[in-house]
Amino acid sequence: DSIDITLVLKLQHKISEVERENKRLKQRVDEIELSPETEHARNTARDSLKISELELQNNDLKEQLKILREAISEDLGSKQLLSQFAVLEEKFERSREECIQLRSVLANQPANIISAVSKKYGGMSSINEDGELALAYETQKTINKQLELELQDEKEKYQMYEKELKLEIQKLKEDNENQYKILYSLMDSTPNSQSEAFMKKEITRLASENLALHEKIDELTELNRKYKKQAKMFEMKLKNAGIRKKDREYMGMFEFKKGLEKEIVSNLVIGLKPRTAVTLLPGLPAYILFMCIRYTDHINDDEMVRNLLTAYMNGVKKIVKKTNDDWEIIVLWLANSLRLIHNLKQYSGDVAFQGSNTLRQNEQCLRNFDLSEYRQLLSDTAVFIYKSLIKYLQEKIQSHIVAAILEHEPIAVGSNKPAGMRGRVGSVDSPADIKKSSDELLRQLANTYKILGFYGVD
């Protein structure tokens, strides 16, 4: 197929225009975002909101002050003073509003300052009493300076814009010359030679663009290397300045105040839900409680550790008895009670439990307390939780056990029973009911094992 040279040239020209327009718009957006006018507009909007809020607060305070004055004024003299004060305050507000209007006139209409002031006040002496005219003059000077700076910024922007346009015009001239050369070379040639000439021109153009891109990559690589070198220099300066992260030695304790033992247990035991505990580290409540125990051992407060462990055991028994139909809670506190018992054994200081400890773990053993009696009480609590769990599971799967066993012993149902008994058995459980009970039993056992695995007691 022959190449439509005219269409290709038009498309190239259109793509170039779109790229230039896109680049110009990006630069314009950056200039607008960084321009002082945009920042001034943001500041003006923010200041106007602050002024509105302050005016509302000022009005509220004035109303409150007025109420207080009326409340404390009982005699005639106080009322007269208040009325005089109200008149003076009204005059002050009027003069303040006039000053604000005068300054706005000076800012917005600098060419008509004298006429506006004369029209407002009827003369110059009335505004020059407190030096307001000098203040307005200084304000006008500041405004003029700001306008000069803005004019200089605009001038620099347009100079840069003019330079970019000149470069773009030069580039367009070069493109036009190349396009004319291509057209002149293709006017008297055959279609095959036209395609060949066009491909040569395209290869030349792509080669020049590729070279320009390589030069740009080299510049960016050099700039990147320079920035990396600067970053290393700054890093060395920071190291030499001695700015380091403060080293902290964690003691593995949770400090708490005396009397908060019941509150800790309430938040840790009663307030913890199984769905939340599944997402945490297995045995995390037990570790937190053990860290509190280590703190009581560190300060050698026997009453605190006694209250803490007693509150824990009472709280666990209470929540297990209260929610005996939610067996996830039972499994949760069985796992945490066992973990707490193991921690108390591992860090008790007894040689029998230190066989697998590291040197660091042996250094963190309890130093002041012998909690062997509490370990026994915690073991009794764990046995109580375990019995509650077994009782719940027995009640849950008891109704499915007989039917599931009968499904796997069909001969016993058909031949080893008397005729009357066979009739009763056949009338009670149909094959469909037996199959359903067997599937339900397997589902219950699988779900039980999965929950036990979640909490680490499988």
Element string (H = helix, E = strand): HHHHHHHHHHHHHHHH
Q: What is the number of helices?
A: 16
Question: Termini distance?
Answer: 74 Å
Cα Rg: 45 Å
Low-confidence segments, ≥5 residues, pLDDT <50? Answer: 411-428
User: Structural class, from helix and strand content?
Assistant: mainly alpha
The profile of the biggest β sheet is: none
Count of β-strands: 0
Task: Give the overall shape.
Answer: extended
The whole-number mean of residue pLDDT values reads 76
**Estimated share of beta-strand residues:** under 5%
| Helical proportion, percent range | over 70%
Number of domains: 3
InterPro entries: Dilute_dom, Myo5a/b_dom, Vascular_dev_regulator
GO molecular function: GTPase binding
Domain Dilute: 310-458
Protein name: Dilute class unconventional myosin
Explain how this protein is built.
The protein is an all-alpha fold. Helix content is 80%, strand content 0%. It contains 16 helices and no strands. It has helices at 5-34, 36-72, 76-108, 113-121, 132-187, 191-240, 261-270, 274-277, 284-299, 302-322, 327-346, 359-363, 372-407, 410-414, 419-428, 431-454. The model is unreliable at 411-428 (pLDDT under 50).
What would a concise description of this structure say?
This protein is an all-alpha fold.
Features:
single chain, 458 residues, mainly alpha, 3 domains, 0% strand, coiled coil
List the helices and strands and how they pair.
Elements (H helix, E strand, L loop, with lengths): L4 H30 L1 H37 L3 H33 L4 H9 L10 H56 L3 H50 L20 H10 L3 H4 L6 H16 L2 H21 L4 H20 L12 H5 L8 H36 L2 H5 L4 H10 L2 H24 L4
Helix pairs in contact: 3-5, 5-6, 7-10, 9-10, 9-11, 10-13, 11-13, 13-16
